[in-house]
C-alpha cells in the first residue's frame, strides 16, 4: 500500500508510524547457549556466513581454450527465506559430524517485525497507521482525492477480514472552509445588491453597479490564473472583501449621473458626460490609492508575506478592473439604461429619501459646527488618537487565531522508565473517553511515539482525534457542545483526573506543518559550558516560575535529566586477564538486550533484515545479565557478571540540540482570556528572571513566525500610508491636501480596534491585513470630499463653502459605498464553522474600521480641508484659480460664519443641488 500511495503525484512523502517492515527475528536463549558453549559472536558469524548470496559464475564462459557447445550460468540456493531454514543453520560442528549445534538448539527463528517499539490502535483495536503528507507545491485537495481513489482500488486485493478507514483528513477543513467562504461570497453579493437598490431605488440604476461585480470577479480570476494563484482561503477572503469595493466606483459614477439628471435636468447621455468630468479624478485616485496600499505587500518575505500576498494581489486586481469598469462600462450603461424625468416616489423609498434628506441637513449643520469650532475638534481628534494608542496596547496580540480544523492532537507523558505496556494502559483512557463523545468519529493512538519530541519513547504516546463533519457538528443543537474548543476543554478537564500519567490534548497548529502542535514552542538553550544537570536545573526553575504567571496554562516539557538507567561497568583488567576480548563483552550485551542486524533475507521480491535478540523472558530484569556468558582464552564459558558490575544511575533520556546548542523544548498554552502574544511576553519575562547569562531563548513553530513577523504589520501599515501620501501629492500637486486625506485613517484604526476589543478578539495577521485595507478605504471617503472641495474652490467658492458643499453633496455616495462594503463583510463577522475565527478577525476589524471612517470621520474631513487649505493659501499668498469670479472678499476670507463679523456668504458652485 505504501508504495502505491507514494506513486501518487504530491504524496511521495508518505510513511508508516513505527517501522512495520518484515524481519527474520532470531530469538536466542542465553542459558542454552551457555550449556552448549555458544557465544553471541558464534551465532552472528554462523548466520552471516551461511546466509549470503554468491555469484558462482557460469559453465563455458570465455575464454574456453576450445570450442564449446553451450554456455549457461551456475546458480546456488543463496539466501535463506524460511524460518525453518534459519532454524537449521549450523552454529558449531565437531570433526566427524558429531555434536552438531544448530540454531534451533539455542533459540528459534520466526518471521516478525523489524521494530516493536510502536503500537498503534484505531478505535481501540490494533492497526497500522499510514500518514500521507502533501508534497510542497502540490494541491492538497487533488492529493486527497487521488489517495481515496487508490485506497479503494487497493482494497480489492486485501485479505479477508482486513479493511481500512480514513481516521483523519485535514483537507476536510479546507473543503469546508472554501465551501463556507463561497456561501459568504454569495451572501455578501445579495446584501450589496440590496443596499444599492435601496439607495438608487431603480432596477435599471441598480443593475449598472451590480454588473461590475461579475465583470470584476471574472477579470480577477483571469489575473489570478496569470499569476499562478490558486483558489484558497486567502484569495477567497480577498474576493469577499472585494465585492464591497468593486461596486464603489460604479456607485460613485451612477449616483453622480442620477444627481446631474435630477438637479441639472440633463438627459442620460449628457449627465453621464458631466458626471465623468466630475468623478473621473476621484475614481482614478481611489484605484491608485488602493493599489498603492496592496501591491507593495506582495514583496514581503516569509509566511506573513505569503499570507498578505495572495490576499492583497487579489484585491488589487479586482480594484483595477472595477476602476476600468467604472470609467468605461458604467457611464455607457448609464446613458443607455437610465431614463430621464423625475418619478414620484412612494412608500418605503419616499420615507427613506425624506429620512436621508433630514439626516443630510443635520449632518451639514454639524459639519458647520465642527468647522466653526475646529480647535475643539482638533483636540477631540488628538484625544481619539491617544485612545487608539491605549486600545492598541490593550488588544491582545496573536499570530493566527486558533481554528476548529476538524481534529485534535494529544500526548501522553508517563513517568521515567515507564514501560510501553504501562503507557498503553494509560492511553486506553484516551480511547475510552473520546469514543463516548458525540462529536468524535475516530480515535487513533500511537503508543511509543512522543508527539512533543517527534521521537520514539516507551513512556510516551500520541493520539489523533477525528471529528464528525462540520455540517453535523455545527447544527444549532450541537454548535455549543461539539465545536473543537468545547471538546478540547471537556477532554482536558476529564483526562486530567488520570493520575498514572499526564494526558495533554491540544489544538493542531493553525497552519499544518508550522510546529508539531498548537500553542507556543520555546527552547531554552545552553550557550556556554553548562552540563546537562545544570541545564535541567534552569529548566526546572523556569517551569516552577511559570506556575505564577496567570497568562500561562499547561506549560510542559518532556525533558528529564534524572531518568533511571542501569550503568554497566566493564572491568577491563580482569577481562584481559581471563582472555576475554572487550568487544565480545559489548557484543554479547548488544545482541541479547538490544538487537543486532546481521544479515538479509528475500521475501516478496525484496530484501529484509535478519535480527538477533534474546527471548523476551531473558531480558526482563537486571539480573538477567547474569545469564549471559562469553568465552575465555581457555575455551571455558565465563559468566558476564565476572567482568562487569552494575549500578543504578540517573541521566537524560533524550538530549536535543536547537541551533546547534544543547536545548530543552518548552510547550506552553494560553490561559483562558489570554492571547498567544501575551504568552510570548510572559515566557520572555520569566526567562529573564531565572536564566543565567550564558543561556538563551529560541522559538519554533508559530511562535517563531510570530516573533519574525512582529514588525511586519507596522512596516506594511506605514509603507501604505507613505505610498498613499505620495500618490495623492501627485494628484493634487500640493503637500497639504494629502495630509488631510490621511488624517481620515486614524478614525478607521480607532473603529477597528474598538470593534475587536469589544468582541474580545485579537490583533492577529488577519486583523492586520484588514487594517492595511482600511488605509485605502478611509482615504477613499476623504478623497470623495476633498476632490469635490477642490473643484468647488476652483469654481470660486470660499474655502469654508467649498468644504461644506462637498461634504453635503458627497454624503450620499459615501454612505452608500461604505454601507455596501460593511454589509458585504457582515457574513464574515458572524460566520460559523470551518475557519470561522479567521473570518471573524478580518470581518470585525474592517466593519469597525469602516464604521469609524464613515460615522465619525465624515464630520472631521471637511474641517481638515478647511484648516489645511486656509493655512496653505495664507502661506502661499496667492489666489486659487477661479477665485476672481467670486464676490470681493470671499476668495481669501476663509473664516467660517460666527468666527467674526462679516463672514462669507455661501456662493453656489455649478454642482449645487439648488442650482
UniProtKB/TrEMBL annotation:
GO molecular function, one term: efflux transmembrane transporter activity
Database matches in InterPro entries: AcrB_DN_DC_subdom, Acrflvin-R, MdtF-like
One GO process term, biological-process aspect: response to toxic substance
Main location: membrane
Compartments (UniProt record): Cell inner membrane
Membrane association type: Multi-pass membrane protein
Biased composition (Low complexity): 880-891
Gene Ontology CC: plasma membrane
Membrane-spanning intervals of the chain: 181-200, 207-231, 237-258, 279-299, 311-338, 374-392, 714-732, 739-759, 765-790, 811-830, 842-868
Cell membrane recorded as keyword: yes
Keyword Cytoplasm assigned: no
Region (Disordered): 874-915
Keywords noted in UniProt: Cell inner membrane, Cell membrane, Membrane, Transmembrane, Transmembrane helix, Transport
Protein family (similarity comment): Belongs to the resistance-nodulation-cell division (RND) (TC 2.A.6) family.
Protein name: Efflux pump membrane transporter
Amino acid at each position: 500500500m505504501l508504495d502505491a500511495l507514494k506513486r501518487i503525484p504530491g504524496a511521495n512523502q508518505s510513511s508508516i508510524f513505527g517501522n512495520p517492515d518484515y524481519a527474520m527475528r532470531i530469538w536466542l536463549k542465553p542459558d542454552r547457549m551457555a550449556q552448549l558453549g555458544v557465544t553471541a559472536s558464534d551465532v552472528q558469524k554462523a548466520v552471516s556466513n551461511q546466509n549470503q548470496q554468491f555469484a558462482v559464475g557460469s559453465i563455458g564462459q570465455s575464454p574456453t581454450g576450445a570450442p564449446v557447445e553451450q554456455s549457461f550460468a551456475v546458480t546456488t540456493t543463496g539466501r535463506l527465506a524460511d524460518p525453518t531454514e534459519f532454524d537449521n543453520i549450523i552454529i558449531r560442528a565437531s570433526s566427524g559430524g558429531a555434536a552438531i549445534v544448530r540454531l534451533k538448539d539455542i533459540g528459534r527463528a520466526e518471521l516478525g517485525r523489524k521494530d516493536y517499539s510502536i503500537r498503534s490502535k484505531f478505535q481501540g483495536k490494533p492497526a497500522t497507521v499510514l500518514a500521507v503528507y502533501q508534497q510542497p507545491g502540490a494541491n492538497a485537495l487533488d492529493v486527497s482525492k487521488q489517495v481515496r481513489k487508490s485506497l479503494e482500488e487497493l482494497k480489492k486485493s486485501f485479505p479477508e477480514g482486513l479493511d481500512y478507514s480514513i481516521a483523519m483528513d485535514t483537507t476536510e477543513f479546507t473543503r469546508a472552509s472554501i465551501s463556507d467562504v463561497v456561501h459568504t461570497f454569495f451572501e455578501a453579493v445579495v446584501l450589496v445588491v440590496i443596499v444599492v437598490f435601496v439607495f438608487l431605488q431603480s432596477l435599471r440604476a441598480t443593475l449598472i453597479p451590480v454588473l461590475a461585480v461579475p465583470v470584476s470577479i471574472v477579470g480577477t480570476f483571469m489575473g489570478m490564473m496569470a499569476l499562478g494563484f490558486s483558489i484558497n482561503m486567502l484569495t477567497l477572503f480577498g474576493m469577499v472583501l472585494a465585492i464591497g469595493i468593486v461596486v464603489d466606483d460604479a456607485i460613485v459614477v451612477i449616483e453622480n449621473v442620477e444627481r446631474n439628471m435630477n438637479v441639472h435636468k440633463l438627459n442620460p447621455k449628457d449627465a453621464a458626460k458631466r458626471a465623468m468630468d466630475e468623478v473621473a479624478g476621484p475614481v482614478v485616485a481611489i484605484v491608485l490609492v488602493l493599489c498603492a496600499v496592496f501591491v507593495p505587500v506582495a514583496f514581503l518575505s516569509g509566511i506573513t508575506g505569503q499570507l498578505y500576498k495572495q490576499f492583497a494581489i487579489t484585491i488589487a486586481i479586482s480594484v483595477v478592473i472595477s476602476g476600468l469598469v467604472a470609467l468605461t462600462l458604467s457611464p455607457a450603461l448609464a446613458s443607455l439604461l437610465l431614463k430621464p424625468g423625475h418619478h414620484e416616489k412612494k412608500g418605503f423609498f419616499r420615507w427613506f429619501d425624506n429620512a436621508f434628506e433630514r439626516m443630510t441637513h443635520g449632518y451639514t449643520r454639524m459639519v458647520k459646527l465642527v468647522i466653526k469650532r475646529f480647535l475643539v475638534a482638533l483636540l477631540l481628534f488628538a484625544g481619539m488618537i491617544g485612545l487608539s494608542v491605549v486600545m492598541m496596547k490593550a488588544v491582545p496580540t496573536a499570530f493566527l487565531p486558533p481554528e476548529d480544523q476538524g481534529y485534535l492532537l494529544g500526548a501522553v507523558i508517563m513517568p521515567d522508565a515507564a514501560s510501553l505496556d504501562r503507557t498503553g494502559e494509560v492511553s486506553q483512557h484516551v480511547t475510552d473517553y473520546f469514543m463516548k463523545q458525540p462529536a468524535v468519529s475516530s480515535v487513533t493512538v500511537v503508543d511509543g511515539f512522543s508527539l512533543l519530541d517527534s521521537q520514539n519513547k516507551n513512556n510516551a504516546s500520541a493520539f489523533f482525534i477525528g471529528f464528525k463533519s462540520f455540517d453535523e457538528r455545527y447544527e444549532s443543537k450541537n454548535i455549543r457542545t461539539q465545536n473543537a474548543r468545547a471538546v478540547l476543554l471537556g477532554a482536558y478537564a476529564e483526562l486530567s483526573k488520570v493520575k498514572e500519567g499526564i494526558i495533554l490534548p491540544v489544538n493542531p497548529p493553525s497552519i499544518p506543518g508550522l510546529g508539531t502542535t498548537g500553542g507556543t514552542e520555546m527552547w531554552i538553550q545552553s550557550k556556554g559550558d553548562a552540563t546537562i544537570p545544570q541545564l535541567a536545573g534552569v529548566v526546572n526553575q523556569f517551569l516552577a516560575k511559570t506556575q505564577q504567571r496567570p497568562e500561562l496554562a499547561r506549560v510542559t516539557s518532556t525533558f528529564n535529566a534524572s531518568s533511571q538507567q542501569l550503568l554497566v561497568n566493564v572491568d577491563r583488567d580482569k577481562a584481559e586477564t581471563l582472555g576475554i576480548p572487550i568487544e565480545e563483552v559489548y557484543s554479547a550485551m548488544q545482541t541479547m538486550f538490544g538487537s543486532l542486524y546481521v544479515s538479509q533475507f528475500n521475501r516478496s521480491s525484496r530484501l529484509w533484515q535478519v535480527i538477533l535478540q534474546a527471548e523476551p523472558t531473558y531480558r526482563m530484569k537486571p539480573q538477567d545479565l547474569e545469564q549471559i556468558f562469553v568465552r575465555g582464552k581457555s575455551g571455558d564459558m565465563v559468566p558476564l557478571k565476572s567482568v562487569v558490575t552494575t549500578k543504578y544511575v540517573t541521566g537524560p533520556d533524550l538530549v536535543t540540540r536547537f541551533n546547534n546548542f544543547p536545548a530543552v523544548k518548552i510547550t506552553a498554552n494560553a490561559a483562558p482570556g489570554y492571547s498567544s502574544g501575551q504568552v510570548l511576553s510572559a515566557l520572555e519575562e520569566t526567562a529573564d528572571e531565572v536564566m543565567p547569562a550564558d543561556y538563551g531563548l529560541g522559538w519554533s513553530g508559530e511562535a517563531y513566525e510570530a516573533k519574525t513577523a512582529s514588525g511586519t504589520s507596522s512596516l506594511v501599515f506605514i509603507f501604505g500610508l507613505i505610498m498613499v501620501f505620495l500618490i495623492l501629492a501627485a494628484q493634487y500637486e500640493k503637500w497639504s491636501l494629502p495630509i488631510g486625506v490621511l488624517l481620515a485613517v486614524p478614525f478607521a484604526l480607532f473603529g477597528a480596534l474598538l470593534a475587536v476589543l469589544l468582541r474580545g478578539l485579537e490583533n492577529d495577521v488577519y486583523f492586520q491585513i484588514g487594517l492595511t485595507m482600511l488605509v485605502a478605504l478611509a482615504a477613499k471617503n476623504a478623497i470623495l470630499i476633498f476632490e469635490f472641495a477642490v473643484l468647488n474652490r476652483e469654481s470660486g467658492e470660499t474655502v469654508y463653502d467649498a468644504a461644506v458643499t462637498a461634504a453635503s453633496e458627497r454624503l450620499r455616495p459615501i454612505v452608500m459605498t461604505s454601507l455596501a462594503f460593511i454589509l458585504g463583510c457582515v457574513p464574515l463577522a458572524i460566520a460559523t464553522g470551518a475557519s470561522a475565527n479567521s473570518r471573524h478577525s478580518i470581518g470585525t476589524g474592517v466593519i469597525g474600521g469602516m464604521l469609524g471612517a464613515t460615522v465619525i470621520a465624515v464630520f472631521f474631513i471637511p474641517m481638515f480641508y478647511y484648516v489645511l487649505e486656509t493655512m496653505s493659501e495664507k502661506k502661499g499668498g496667492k489666489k486659487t484659480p477661479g477665485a476672481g469670479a467670486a464676490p470681493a472678499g470671499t476668495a481669501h476670507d476663509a473664516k467660517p460664519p460666527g468666527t467674526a463679523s462679516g463672514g462669507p456668504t455661501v456662493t453656489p458652485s455649478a454642482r449645487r443641488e439648488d442650482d
